[in-house]
Structure formats: C-alpha cells, structure tokens
Amino acid sequence: MRRDLGWWALLLPAFLMMTVLYVAPILQVLAISVTEPTLGTGNYERLLSNAGVQRVILTTLRIGLLTTGIALLLGYALAYVIALARPAAQRWWLLGVLLPLWISVLVRAFAWVTLLRRQGLVNQGLQALGAIDSPLQLVWNEFGVVVGMVHYMVPYAVLPMLASMREIDPRLLVAARGMGASRGMVFGRVFLPLSLPGVVAAAVLVFIFSLGFYITPAILGGGKTLMTAEWIKLQILDLVRWGMGAMLATVLVGAILATLAVFSRVVDLRRLFGARA
Amino acid sequence: MTGGYGAGHLAKALAWTTVLYLVLPITIVLPVSLTDQRFLSLPYETLSLRHYANIFASPAWLAAISQSFALAVASTLLAVVAGTLCAVGCWRLSRRASDLVRVLMLLPLIIPSIVYAVGLYRWFGRLDLLDRFLGVALAHAVTAIPYVVITVSAALAAFDARLEQAARGMGASLPQTLRWVILPRIAPGIASGAIFAFIHSWDELVMVLFITSRQVFTLPRKMWDGINENLDPTMAAVAMLLVAFTILLLWLDGALRRRRGGDA
To answer: A163: which chain B residues are within 8 Å (Cβ-Cβ)?
Structure first.
C-alpha cells in the first residue's frame, strides 16, 4: 500500500477538480430542488398538477423515442454495410460517419436552418421544380427538431453497433449460406441476433443523449417545441424559478441514471462511452 | 469482418442515403458562404469572398475567435495534465481500487451539460467566477477530462507494464519513470486527448450561456446570437471556417494515430 502512495497522488488533481468543480455544483442542483422556494417536495408535486411540465416531459419522451428509432434504423444499415465492406472502403464510410460527429453542433443547426426555413434552399428548390405552390413548414416545429436531432445522433448509433458487428465471425455467414440459407435467413437468424448487444447499447446512448439535448431543439424548435433542457433554461434564466428548474434537472438526471441502471446488465458502460474516442 | 459475404442492395441504398443525409447538409454551407448576395442564398452571378472579408474586418468576430482560442488552449492544458496523471494512476493501481475514480471521470459524458450549467451558475456566483476567463477555463477543463482519460487509457493499454517495473527496479523514482519511461510511449495518446479537449472547449455553448455575459464572449456564443437574430451570409462564412478548422484538427489526429500504429 505504501509503495502505491505515489500512484494514488497522481489521481489527486483530477479527483479534486472533479469533486469541487463538477460533483459539488450538481449536488447543489439536487439540493435546490427540495429547498427552494420552501423546504419540502413541493416542486415535485407540480409534476402531478402542472400541465406545462407534463407537456414538456411528454414532448421530450416522444421526440426522444422517435429520434432513437430513426437513428437506430439508419445507423444499423450504415453499420451493417461498413462491417461487410472491404477495409479500404470501410475507411471512407467511417470518414462519412466521424466527420459530422466532430463538426460543431451550431454549424450543423445553422446548415439545417439554411436548408429548411421558409425561404430556404429546400423550399426554393421544390417551388422551382413546381412540386409545391407555397413553402412547406419544415423547421421551427417538431419535424425540424427530429431532422436535426437524428442527424446529430446517427454517428452515436453507428459506433456501438459497428463495434459489436465487427466481432461477428464472417465465416458463420458464409457457412450459413453454404448450408442453403437464403440471404434473408442469414441476416434474420444469424447476423441480427449476434448484433443485438450493439443495438441495445446504441439505443441507450442515443436515448439518454436525446433527453438532455439543448442546442439543436432550441434552434430548430424555434421556441415552439419545448423540450426538457430548454424548459430548464427558461425557468432559471428568464423566470428565475430555481426550484422548478432544479426539480426538472433532477428528474432528468434520475431518468438517465435509471435507464443506464436497467441496461447495465446488457451494456458495458465504460465501453459504451469509450466508443467515442 | 470481411470476405465471402457482402451487404445486399437494400442495405447499401439505405446506407448511402444515410451518409448523404449526414454529409450533404454540411457541404451546403460552402456555396452559401460564397454568395454574392446580402442574404442567405446560393450564389446568383458570381462567387464572392466578401463575407469572409466581413469577418476579418469585424472587431466583434475577431475578439470572439481569439477569446475562444485562448480559452480552448487554457482548458486543454489543465485537462491534459489532470487527465493524463489520472489515467496513469488508474492504470497502475488495481482495477477494483480505482474503479470509483474511473466512473467519476465518465460523469461529464453522461450527465447533460444543461444540468451542469445550472449548477455552475449558482456555484460560480458564490466563488465569484461568473463571467470570468478563469471560470470558463475551469468549467471546460473539468468537462474535457473524460476525453483525455479515455484516449490516454487506450494508449496505456498497449504499453508493456514490465518496462515500468524494470525502470523502478533499477532505482528510478516515480517522477523519473513517468518522465522518461511512460510519457514518451503514450505521447500520441496524450496528443489525441488534447485535440478532443480543444474541440470540446472550442464548440461548447451551453455552459457559456449560463456563466458568461459580457466580459467573456466566445465564438459559439456569437454564433448563437447570429442564428437567433440576423441570419446573414457572414454566419455561413464563419461556419465554413469552423468546418475547415475541425477537418484540420481531425486530420492531425489521424496523422498522430498512424504514427502510433507505426511504432507499436
């Protein structure tokens, strides 16, 4: 133990920074939710009585589930094709997935606004082609939010699924074909079941990111589609209702930790979050 | 996995559609930034660089860029030092002993930044760190530590622990072992972590919205105001410069990884 003392000391700077500057402020949020404006669970009782909060939570869950579903479908096809591609082709496909991942989320939201707004390029293009008479409402509503969020989440869906598909032995697929299985059967009976752990990991990752997402829904929702994060920001910065904001923030963290706890049997958390780097 | 089995037409079509959906919207920013008009549009008659010239003639944009850059450098330095030491300590100590620390270091990736931003707003008010360079640098550094810990841990996984034992056995002190044996071997991993920490701070907006007002005004903050107030082609030019800068950093990371792969 004494020999290890030096190694323990190496942990100290990060440990201090993390506890004093990260964990402490977050614990304070949890505390505010039961102490302001008065001591007690008054803020949480609003969850049952306040239609505004309920609508925000329902919107968040609906958009979160929709985003997760679409991102998984698109991401699965992409991961499947990457996993079966030749190594040289794999590198190009991966570039297409990783590049958007690292481009600023503001730049991406800006690009979507440019494309989707009333006088945007999509509406102009469709009108020039004569496909529509008046511009479609493509942004500043739920549609725009989902388009932008799926765009953000697909790379996060691809990476865990690709990792688990890469562990599938290709000889299994060839063997199944050789023994007379159709392509559909090889996929449905061999490939899909073996890739399921990756699908679950991707679903958990995308869903918990969707729940607390701020920038994209705020820009593409245009203040009309309120999700949890933007509602918290409104409570704290605009209405100065700390108790309510802190309450929903606590519920958000609780929902995320509960999701992770439920799936921690199936999903290796450390691998899940290491997948990004 | 390769050989003997390829994806079907349907999967390929869906994968191509998805990649186009991921990449095309970002590329649209380039022609828009080169428009000859005063509003967001594709170029009508000629290509024009005037919106790029606008950025470099605007003290507000230049100030935001330089402040963001300084913040990113400062927070990256803090995160790299703390994160690297932590990863080395966790690697050398037994798994069970350091498990709590490892989980702690992943928290900023799990907890949404909106929750942290709310907490910071109150916490920094008490510490007199609101709207201060130091405050933002610390907040960005703490949330960047996970990226450094992950990349450095990956580099350490490929490092032969017997080298460290040999150095200690021959009488090297811990700082000497760290400096001369461990750090040189994991330098590419540290550089990767630094690049991701830099991008993290450079792009970060949610915390900045809560803990800054006038003194600290970063590039994402300026872009946020631009998107919400006046959508003009200058925004497209800024976005394009950011895309180019990100590609440059990722290319740098790729080059470092190839080198790391080369000497392993």
So the answer is: none
